[in-house]
Structure formats: structure tokens, C-alpha cells
Amino acid sequence: MAIPEAQLETWSHQGSVTQSAGTYAIVKNALENPNALYAERSFEVFLQGSYGNDTNIFSESDVDIVIRLDSVMRSDVSGLPPAQQAAHRQAYGPAVYTFDEFRQGVLTRLNTAFGTADVEPGNKAIKVRASGSRRSADVVVCDQFRRYTRFVSGTDNNFIPGIIFPTETAGEIKNYPKLHSANCTSKHQATNGWFKPMVRILKNMRSQLVDDGIIAADIAPSYFIEGLLYNVPADRFGNNYGDTFCNCLNWLQEIDRSTLECANEQYMLLGDSNVQWPTAKCDAFLDALVDLWNDW
User: Of these four, 32, 98, 107, 277, which has the most CB atoms within 10 Å of its CB?
Assistant: First the structure.
């Protein structure tokens, strides 16, 4: 039996907005405090993740925040011809301010603002625990990253902007959160507003499957669910949520999924790197979605 349209409608709704916005404002204000050890450096604080992309659901609590150091730039020039690589080396010298100094400065600032009991350094982010009306927040500390597609000089070049940061267990991560967000918004517009509600539906279905013990909690991170639906052609969205779910799942079951891209369009979606979704986990998620739909 198919999942009723009324249930899909409920699952399509966005989670907390006001409380998440308040949390972001509080943490952003703390990070931008003029007394921060890095205050004289160039940096930017911005949102990423489900709340930043308007795909958050009611069961999600964390607000994902990025603080990106722009005084230091990390680059990938491996795709450039030798002359352009040489031009890049000539234009930019070694950094005099390190990532470790920046991260320690951010940790110090968060400890000062929220207290050491509510701040915990983690593998990929610094966790700020919830307190009162403030939701929990994950603060990713990173350097600016540029993947150059052309470099003649410091003022005559083209690059794809991203972020880069080390982790304790997964190595160095290079990603493109602003590009991911912009592409998801473009997809939402191209589907006449169906894309983001459908992401929320799949995320709520994932939560149902986890609660029922059908899949593990780490099978389908939100980032990859967004990427999965990003690949589905716009004409598969529309009419109602039930039809859209079936059209999207049928397309994903029929397509060669090794051709799917991340929503940032810089990596293939499925693979074994630290920015890709393991194929077996994607397959397990899709199979579980079909079973949930058929056995409702």
C-alpha cells in the first residue's frame, strides 16, 4: 500500500526556522566578536547544511555553521599547464598564519562565549551544545580553497571556490558548500518548488527507517540525499508528492548510478573518497525506501 498523500504532505514541511535562525545569529555574533584572537584576519561566517539549504526537518536539531579563513588560501592547480602552475607559485608565497592558530582562536572564542562545558572539539567540527532556546550548533573551521581552471596572474584567473579542513579520521576534506547550496536552489526553482519538499520527505522517510531499525543512522546523510535528488530530471517532479516520489525513485532505480554527481557538480556522488557516498549505502537506502512505500 502506498504512503498516503497526507503523510507525505506532513513530511514535506520544513522544521524549526525561528529557533535555528536565532541560534545562527548568536553563534555568528560570537565568532565575529572584535576581541577574537583572529579578529584582524580576513574571514567569513556562513551557513551550510540542512538549515542553510532550507531542507531541515523537525527531528533535526543542529545548525551547521562555517567559519572560513580567507587570509590564507589553499589551492589546487594540478589541472593547469606547467606555465600557469609556475605563474601561481610566483604570485603566492607561503602562509605566515597557520590553520592550527586559526582553529585554536575559534575554539578560544567559543569557550569564552559559551563556556567550556558547552563547547566540544570534534572530528570535523566544534560542537556548541544547546542551552535554553539555543539549538546545538556544529562549527566547521576551515581555510579558503580554490580549484583553479585558469591562472595567468593574481588578477587574471578563474577558480571554483570551496573550503578545506583536516579531520582526525577521514583525512583532509575539500568541499564546496556555497556551490552546493546555490545549485540546490537552482534545482528547486527548476522544479517549480518541488525539490526541497521532496528532500525533506526522503529525510523523514530515512528517520522512520532508522527508528524502525531497518537501516543504520549513518546510511543516508542529508548531504547525500540532497545530491541524490539533485540528479533527477526536473520533469520527474510535480503533480503531487506520491507521483513525484514514484517518478524519482523509478528514475534512480533505472539509471546507471555511477554517473550521478554531487550537487556541487565537482565530484561523482558515489565512491570511496571522504566526500562521496559509498555505493552500498546508497543502494541500501533506495531499497529501504521502496520497501517502506510498498509495505506502508
Answer: 277
